[in-house]
Write a structure and sequence with these properties.
five-stranded parallel sheet, elongated
Length: 315
């Protein structure tokens, strides 16, 4: 992107990023008057580490013109009076097998539909991955954001309970670790109030979110990439005498779905005797089963919304 002049603003590339860990290390602070001690949690210097630096070779999200390479209003099969038995791939193969799984860039589509007195039966194990995308067309710019960009404070001072003032110069992670160890030692010697630990620790550095703002590759509002996703429905039934069914022992999985895998509308029926699963980028919009306007659903099998059928089955 840099060579093509697409970077508009960059406060992230090449910047040091660190992880300081959780404030969970217990230390003992003596209480001389009661001859006891209290526990206080601090940051563990051993857990402070560098995070990967964002470089010019970092891959960032982008959108390109597809030039008719996406499916709009795609349809595989429809039935209005009769029955379609869908059997795709090799019988007995897993849904994720290469013979039984595929990806497609489909938008605004219902792949298999039943209406009037039509019936659709899913009789195989399959996984479909939707790959279509729509860029955020509020403009031609995208932002790649990352947090934990560190800014070291350099020179600062700390006044302890004994009245002494110590000066520090923190400019790297190793110096931050050493400074934190010094603070822990002061706490253990009852020379620093626990209430002041965080404020004194934060004197040494700050963590910030930074970004690279760049122009995306797509610049044609009439290209199919600009079309909204719309429906990505695999099985659809419409009307009181229409039905869709996943047969017992069969599986339908859909990855990256933005609407519903199965949809019954206007009195239609949806029956799951097998297994149905759906995952999507926005789970509130991605559904395994959707029933609309007086439609009915019967689940005699398994429905998974938000995850696939088995722990080893990944998209």
């Amino acid at each position: 992107m840099q060579n093509k002049g697409r970077i508009i603003n960059d406060s992230l590339t090449g910047k040091e990023r660190i992880e300081i860990g959780q404030q969970t290390l217990n230390i003992r602070i003596p209480d001389v008057e009661s001859n006891s001690y209290t526990l206080y949690q601090v940051y563990n210097s051993d857990f402070m580490t560098h995070l990967p630096v964002i470089g010019l070779d970092t891959v960032v999200p982008d959108y390109i013109d597809v030039n008719d390479a996406q499916y709009i209003n795609a349809r595989v099969a429809s039935v209005s009076n009769g029955t379609i038995n869908v059997d795709i791939g090799r019988q007995g193969a897993a849904s994720r097998a290469t013979t039984n799984s595929w990806s497609m860039a489909a938008k605004q589509s219902e792949l298999f539909t039943a209406s009037k007195q039509g019936h659709l039966n899913w009789n195989s194990n399959n996984r479909i991955t939707f790959t279509a995308a729509t860029p955020p067309y509020s403009g031609d710019r995208l932002a790649y954001n990352r947090g934990n960009v560190v800014n070291y404070s350099g020179v600062f001072s700390v006044t302890t309970l004994d009245g002494a003032t110590s000066t520090f110069n923190v400019n790297n992670l190793n110096e931050l670790r050493n400074y934190n160890n010094w603070l822990i030692a002061q706490l253990s010697d009852v020379n620093l109030s626990p209430e002041n630990y965080n404020a004194e620790f934060n004197k040494a550095f700050s963590l910030n979110d930074k970004s690279v703002v760049y122009r995306m590759s797509s610049d044609n509002l009439n290209d199919e990439i600009a079309e909204p996703l719309g429906d990505q429905v695999v099985l659809s039934a419409e009307g009181p005498d229409a039905s869709i069914k996943i047969t017992r022992g069969k599986t339908l999985e859909v990855v990256n779905n933005s609407t519903a895998v199965m949809r019954a509308s206007n009195g239609a029926s949806a029956i799951i005797d097998g297994k149905l699963a759906s995952t999507g980028p926005a789970q509130s919009e991605s559904k395994a089963l959707e029933l609309i306007n007086g439609s009915s659903g019967i689940n005699n099998g398994v429905i998974n919304g938000g995850f696939l059928i088995t722990l080893t089955a990944t998209g």
